[in-house]
Amino acid sequence: MHEFYMVSQLVEKVVEEAKKRDAKRVIEVELEVGQLSFLNPEQMRFAYGVLSKGTILENSHLIITTIEAHVRCKACGFDGRPNYADDASYHVSAPLFLCPNCGSPVEVLEGKGCIVKRVRLEL
Amino acid sequence: MPDEVEVIVPDKGEVFDIELEEDLLEANRRIAEENKQLLEKHRIRAVDVMGSVGSGKTTLIEKLIELLKDKYRIAVFGGDVTTTIDAERIKKRGAKTLQINTGKECHLDANLVRKALSKIDLNEIDVLFIENVGNLICPAEFPLGTDSRVVVISVTEGPYTPLKHPYIFMEADVVVINKIDLADAMNVNVDELEAKIKKISPSAAVVKTSCKTDYGIDMVAKALGLL
């Protein structure tokens, strides 16, 4: 829902970096989107197309990598991926924040971010 | 021996990769942390109230004010896309209110809350309720710097809210199932609804309420550590 907002921040950030390095154009932007974030890659690509127009990012390529959820259990020390609800009513599989090993609540270590990993510039 | 260190610079037309590793959500989290420190400094307990449109967020806050107004000095920030309807309602209850209109955004963010915090006298407040924009998706991703986050849903939304919007529940410290007086009419089994929430968010406290009969309002206050 706030894909447009996030992508406008992304564009702003990349324009700033490109300016700093006096780049001629941006070729590629690599973004990591956590599986537990609320961002839809398809909508982000659409927003990127719209918001990059008329900037140094125009016609550049946006690569989005999805980062899987990673949780840790304080009770038993489990460190890994959470289980997912197999309930058909979810349609998208929803992560369960109970330890797959012992059933205690887990903490999320990875999968919530929206990280600009790398920008490829032509100087 | 040359005095200057030789510097290699990329040629014009050269392709250059920059590793940024910058989290776009980090800016909000940073401001949220500042808000948290500011609130702690003034010993203010702050609660972010999230939930769907019409789930009863404003009514719940009104009821909590009624219950707690002799014990605490309470302020409310009302977040909406537009209008001051909710803020006017809260004001009548005797709490300090400030409306935050997001204009177009689907959620409050830490920066808007920081602005609002600068507009009130923090020495005159013990408890702050921040009513987020009615939305079960976006607010979850933008912490505001509050001590706790509440998600309010109601039986009139039907039995599937936690299934359809699992992600917001994982951010919640307290989940309120409101309008339970209408459960029979809506053919919703409240215990099943609670089990679905518990599955998604095992550590959240789930409280069943009816703002019409005042059932469970004190339990919400207890779950928030205000009673």
How would you explain this protein's 3D organization?
The complex is a heterodimer of chains A (123) and B (227). A three-stranded mixed beta sheet of chain A has the order 2-1-6, covered by helices on one side. In chain A, strands 4-3-5 form a three-stranded antiparallel beta sheet, with no helix packed on it. In chain A, helix 1 crosses helix 2. Chain A has a domain of 81 residues: hypothetical protein PF0899 fold, CATH 3.30.2320.50. In chain A, 24% of the residues lie in helices and 30% in strands. Chain A has 123 residues and is an alpha+beta fold. Chain B is of the alpha/beta class. Chain B has a single domain, classed as 3-Layer(aba) Sandwich (Rossmann fold), CATH 3.40.50.300. Chain B is built from nine helices and eight strands. In chain B, helix 3 links the parallel strand 3 and strand 4. In chain B, helix 1 packs parallel to helix 4 and helix 2 packs across helix 9. The longest helix of chain B has 16 residues. Chains A and B meet through helix 1 and strand 6 of A and strand 1 of B.
Distance between the termini of chain B: 76 Å
Number of domains of chain B: 1
How would the global form of chain A be characterised?
elongated
Can you write the helix and strand succession of chain A as a string?
Answer: HEHEEEEE
Supply the CATH superfamily name of chain B: P-loop containing nucleotide triphosphate hydrolases
Shape of chain B: globular
Strands of chain B, total number? 8
Low-confidence stretches of chain A: none
Record the strand order, biggest sheet of chain A: 2-1-6
Distance from N terminus to C terminus of chain A (CA atoms, Å) equals 35 Å
Order of helices and strands of chain B: EHEHEHEHEEHHEHHEH
Briefly, what is this?
The complex is a heterodimer of chains A (123) and B (227). With 123 residues, chain A is α+β, with helices and mostly antiparallel strands.
